[in-house]
Specification:
Blueprint (H helix, E strand, L loop, with lengths): L15 H11 L12 E2 L12 E2 L2 H11 L6 H11 L19 H13 L3 H21 L33 H14 L12 E3 L12 E3 H12 L3 E4 L6 H12 L8 H24 L14 H14 L4 E5 L5 H9 L3 H5 L7 E2 L13 E7 L4 E7 L9 H15 L8 E8 H6 L1 H7 L12 E7 L8 H4 L16 E5 L3 H18 L3 E6 L17 H9 L3 H12 L4 H22 L4 E2 L14 E2 L2 E2 L11 H11 L11 H15 L2 E2 L1 H14 L3 E6 L14 E2 L7 E2 L12 E5 L5 H13 L3 E6 L10 H8 L2 H5 L6 E5 L18 H8 L3 E3 L4 H13 L6 E5 L11 E2 L12 E2 L4 H4 L6 E5 L3 H12 L5 E6 L1 E3 L3 H10 L4 E9 L5 H11 L6 E6 L10 H16 L9
Parallel strand pairs: 6-9, 6-10, 7-14, 10-11, 11-13, 12-13, 18-21, 18-22, 22-23, 23-25, 24-25, 28-29, 28-31, 31-32
Antiparallel strand pairs: 1-2, 3-4, 5-12, 8-9, 15-16, 17-26, 19-20, 24-30, 27-29
Helix pairs in contact: 5-7, 9-19, 9-20, 10-17, 13-24, 15-24, 21-22, 21-23, 23-28, 24-25, 31-32
Pfam families: 2-oxogl_dehyd_N (PF16078), E1_dh (PF00676), OxoGdeHyase_C (PF16870), Transket_pyr (PF02779)
EC number: 1.2.4.2
Catalytic activity: N(6)-[(R)-lipoyl]-L-lysyl-[protein] + 2-oxoglutarate + H(+) = N(6)-[(R)-S(8)-succinyldihydrolipoyl]-L-lysyl-[protein] + CO2
């Protein structure tokens, strides 16, 4: 039940006609006297929030009327007077005079219609029919808008006109209109006919087509609706369940004459089109056989982006982070980011040498960072275009994460200073799931960037695939509806319409801080690239494209005809930009070396130097003083907020932590706590993200405490460690790997002085984020010359549920130089202390590398997986290799077998060795850092046991674990002097058996092989 009085501030009172109509439709059997009338549901003109029944509303109005007839709407005043006089309910209503803002002619005409109309019910029904018609245009007008610049396709893949729209997209052709009207009359949609065209109807408050007029003839109503919703702009917004937002959009598109541009704005638009078009033509003339994925067919994209940036800058934004696929990237770099043209042109030189480390990537994948003056607003603006591989939409979450980081570091909690713009292709926007994952991050508290402007370059084709074969939804943009983002479809051959929707999109983002989509319906003049032949698969489309006049020529002719510019001025604008290109081309010939660092999208000024000198290639001790360890441990085992009730089970966990601290010992969770807490003390922001990371998938972490008596009351003890500490952000993510890992990667790109970690719920779940790992994390420095310090925590372990690299390992600081030379660091720690050290080392290193940590499950609570404070004090470091330290190490000459392993299997091996009484015959060495490989330390281990067989032992199946990686590197270490045997599970297609008994049987076979000293004698 919903009482109408509760929404009085949102909706004007229902008129008598609306109430009578609503009542008669929903309660036909009830009497029509005012004492019995109830308002059921909502009339056609009401908004979706009106639902249920309003009881006693009319009775209350009647009582109010008795006291003061002016306290109710005029129509109710008339209704109550007539009813009191004895008029039957069907005839009690009379139309009041229109509101004062209406024209006198409309008032007189409307009044004469009422007086001449004996059937008041028919008049009410007609008014409601008109309201239904208006609503139909608002909901479905975009389906008949003229969006395709080629005039051969329908942007929504459906050529039919919606049945409830009286539409003729051919300038309201009267014959077409009459036929549509006849069909609707016969179909019973509205009950209107041709004689109603000149009748005047009151307009509901849910439309702005009247401007200053409150009533219009039906013919004019339809004409204005056609102009608002069925021309070159198609607006999708009526699925939004917020009245204020819907009204805002209606006002922007329905108000008569609202889409007006000054001559100066038109000249600016023309100049931007000149730059966009002539840039592509210049590249085509100079490098006709080179792929560049040009923008031909959507040249309007450049002025569109600049309009969004201009309007956003005007609204206070000073940093815009962009992501886009390869099509049009060079043009965006040149004319939006304003990268030096010679830097772009020299990239076409096949003899160009790389001056910087790293291979780089093709020119249309690279990014850029630039701070400049916005000439329209005279404000500083920073623009960053994030590098992106061929995996079209892969950069979407990266851009979002980088935007979130920049907002975080500048204290922009509402997204007023930093914003993101994402460009998409139509086929990729509809076809790639990462788009959906990214949208679902858009309004989550720890991931929102307070609105992104999405611009879809809708070529109406994906490579060679027709849209009808590429998507099931009417539009490629339908995925955006899941977050109630308005979608503005626009014909890209109407530059002024494009500019207008871009202004509205920027204003929407500034006003509501929510996502918005601009769908530029365009075409692709060439094939997939400049060398491709599109006529093979789209002959009819490309026959039309060959005849299509370029948008620059169309718009120039329009402005010349309007007298905004003359032909000589237009030609001078072209000549001026052509000269700029030619001069840059001449300078580009002097660029013989590619400075890839000029293409960085996330520079870190000041990080790589210290006091003006390059930072030392060394790493200090990662240990801490005992008082710091104790303080962090005490906070970790307490609740630093008063009157906060925690779960009884958590009380026991915290008590156990406290006992560990008293005993100067840490387990896995406490080691992580101490690493994080100490970095926070040093001003390092820490962000931990992933599914269920607040508690920890295995219920070991508990970094966010929940009050058991007060809903949504939480406490993060880590943020109560030090008076002026850095903030700790720990956030459960959506059930996404691809999107969230990309987001955290983008966050890590923004600053080197932060520890950003993503934890997979289970280690193998990372494979759904493999694109981010393969395209950004693994090759980041080599491909993009981008150092990133992101940490991946991958819970790993069998729980029952090459050409080897080679370095001179005798050089000084081999371990640090080796880290610098690698693409990422991979570790599998077997002790909490080593986990603690590697997290701290990640920040204390003079550079940044991605860190992959195979974190355990069973070791989280394993009684032997403990580390003493002594191994974490000043002077201690991360151990790349943990050598044997038992009896076998005391008498190395008599050791028969040296087992190498990594991670938790070490504890299975030590238990079995002790059970067999072989502690003196078998030595076990743990490789904690797998990449880069610790050649130097392992050589010492092998040399220490001259008479021992070498075997690698792993719990994973032979084809799935580390054996194929480790064996050739061990052989390189010992110069192939000995074989390296394998002790472990056989190859398998699946990672686990799923059967506990089978799992234990396989484990025992593994152990039997590892400790059978005769196991390898039968092998040559």
């Amino acid at each position: 039940m919903f009482h109408l009085r509760t929404c009085a501030a949102k909706l004007r009172p229902l008129t008598a006609s609306q109430t009578v109509k609503t009542f008669s439709q929903n309660r036909p059997a009830a009497a029509r006297t005012f004492q019995q009338i109830r308002c059921y549901s909502a009339p056609v003109a009401a908004e979706p929030f009106l639902s249920g029944t309003s009881s006693n509303y009319v009775e209350e109005m009647y009582c109010a009327w008795l006291e003061n007839p002016k306290s109710v709407h005029k129509s109710w005043d008339i209704f109550f007077r007539n009813t009191n006089a004895g008029a039957p309910p069907g005839t009690a209503y009379q139309s009041p005079l229109p509101l004062s803002r209406g024209s006198l002619a409309a008032v007189a005409h409307a009044q004469s219609l009422v007086e001449a109309q004996p059937n008041v019910d028919k008049l009410v029904e007609d008014h409601l029919a008109v309201q239904s018609l208006i609503r139909a245009y608002q909901i479905r007008g975009h389906h008949v808008a003229q969006l395709d610049p080629l005039g051969i396709l329908d942007a929504d893949l459906d050529s039919s006109v919606p049945a409830d729209i009286i539409s003729s997209t051919d300038k309201l052709d009267l014959a077409v209109f009459k036929e549509r009207l006849r069909m609707l009359t016969v179909g019973g949609f509205y009950g209107l006919d041709e004689s109603d065209l000149d009748k005047v109807f009151h307009l509901p408050t849910t439309t702005f087509i009247g401007g200053q007029e409150s009533a219009l003839p039906l013919r004019e109503i339809i004409r204005r609706l056609e102009m608002a919703y069925c021309q070159h702009i198609g607006v999708e917004f009526m699925f939004i369940n917020d009245l204020e937002q819907c009204q805002w959009i209606r006002q922007k598109f329905e108000t008569p004459g609202i889409m007006q541009f000054t001559n100066e704005e038109k000249r600016t638009l023309l100049a931007r089109l000149v730059r966009s078009t002539r840039f592509e033509e210049f590249l085509q003339r100079k490098w006709s056989s080179e792929k560049r994925f040009g923008l031909e067919g959507c040249e309007v994209l450049i002025p569109a982006l600049k309009t969004i940036i201009d309007k956003s800058s005007e609204n206070g934004v000073d940093y815009v982070i962009m992501g886009m696929p390869h099509r049009g990237r060079l043009n965006v770099l040149a004319n939006v980011i304003r990268k030096e043209l010679e830097q772009i042109f020299c990239q076409f030189d096949s003899k160009l040498e790389a001056a910087d480390e790293g291979s780089g990537d093709v020119k249309y994948h690279l990014g850029m960072y630039h701070r400049r003056i916005n000439r329209v607003t005279d404000r500083n603006i920073t623009l960053s275009l994030v590098a992106n591989p061929s995996h079209l939409e892969a950069a979407d979450p990266v851009v979002m994460g980088k935007t979130k980081a920049e907002q975080f570091y500048c204290g922009d909690t509402e997204g007023k200073k930093v914003m993101s713009i994402l460009l998409h292709g139509d086929a990729a926007f509809a076809g790639q799931g990462i788009v959906y994952e990214t949208f679902h991050l858009s309004d989550l508290p720890s991931y929102t960037t307070h609105g992104t402007v999405h611009v879809v370059v809708n070529n109406q084709i994906g490579f060679t695939t027709d849209p009808r074969m590429a998507r099931s939804s009417p539009y490629p943009t339908d995925v955006a509806r899941v977050v109630n983002a308005p979608i503005f479809h626009v014909n890209s051959d109407d530059p002024e319409a494009v500019m207008y929707v871009c202004k509205v999109a920027a204003e929407w983002r500034s006003t509501f801080h929510k996502d918005v989509v601009v769908d530029l319906v365009c075409y692709r003049r060439n094939g997939h690239n400049e060398m491709d032949e599109p006529m093979f698969t789209q002959p009819l489309m490309y026959k039309q494209i060959r005849k299509q006049k370029p948008v620059l020529q169309k718009y120039a002719e329009l402005l010349v005809s309007q007298g905004v510019v003359n032909q000589p001025e237009y030609e001078e604008e072209i000549s001026k930009y052509d000269k700029i290109c030619e001069e840059a081309f001449a300078r580009s010939k002097d660029e013989k070396i590619l400075h890839i660092k000029h293409w960085l999208d996330s520079p870190w000024p000041g990080f790589f130097t210290l006091d003006g000198q390059p930072r030392s290639m060394s790493c200090p001790s990662t240990g801490l003083t005992e008082d710091v360890l104790t303080h962090i441990g005490n906070v970790a085992s307490s609740v630093p907020v008063e009157n906060f009730t925690i779960h009884g089970g958590l009380s026991r966990i915290l008590k156990t932590r406290g006992e560990l601290v008293k005993n100067r010992t840490v387990d896995w969770a406490l080691a992580e706590y101490m690493a994080f807490g100490s970095l926070l003390k040093d001003g390092i922001h820490i962000r931990l993200s992933g599914q269920d990371v607040e508690r920890g998938t295995f219920s070991h972490r508990h970094h966010v405490l929940h009050d058991q008596n007060v809903d949504k009351r939480t406490c993060i003890p880590m943020n109560h460690l030090w008076p002026n500490q850095a903030p700790y952000t720990v956030c459960n993510s959506s059930l996404s790997e691809y999107g969230v890992l990309g987001f955290e990667l983008g966050f890590a790109m923004a600053s080197p002085n932060a520890l950003v970690l993503w934890e997979a719920q289970f280690g193998d779940f990372h494979n759904t984020a493999q694109c981010i790992i393969d395209q950004f994390i693994c090759p980041g420095q080599a491909k993009w010359v981008r150092q990133i310090g992101i940490v991946l925590l991958l819970p790993h372990g069998m729980e029952g549920m090459v050409n080897p690299d080679h370095k001179d390992w005798h050089q000084t600081n081999f371990d640090i130089n080796q880290l610098y030379d690698c693409n990422w660091v991979v570790v599998n720690c077997s002790t909490p202390g080593n986990f603690f050290h590697v997290l701290r080392r990640q920040i204390l290193l003079p550079f940044r590398k991605p860190l992959i940590i195979f974190t355990p499950k069973s070791l989280l609570r394993h009684p032997e997986a403990r580390t003493s404070f002594d191994e974490m004090l000043p002077g201690t470091h991360f151990q790349r290799v943990i050598p044997e330290d038992g009896p076998a190490a005391q008498d190395p000459e008599n050791v028969k077998r040296l087992l190498f392993c990594t991670g938790k299997v070490y504890y299975d091996l030590t238990r079995e060795r002790k059970a067999r009484g072989m502690v003196e015959q078998v030595a076990i060495t743990r490789i904690e850092q797998l990449s880069p490989f610790p050649f130097d330390l392992l050589l010492k281990e092998v040399q220490k046991y001259p008479n021992a067989e070498l075997a690698w032992c792993q719990e994973e199946h032979k084809n799935q674990g580390y054996y194929d990686y480790v064996k050739p590197r061990l052989r390189t270490t010992i110069s192939r002097a000995k074989p390296v045997w394998y002790a472990g599970r056989d190859p398998a297609a699946a990672p686990a058996t799923g059967n506990k008994k089978t799992h234990l049987t396989e484990l025992q076979r593994l152990l039997d092989t590892a400790f059978d000293l005769d196991a390898f004698k039968n092998f040559s």
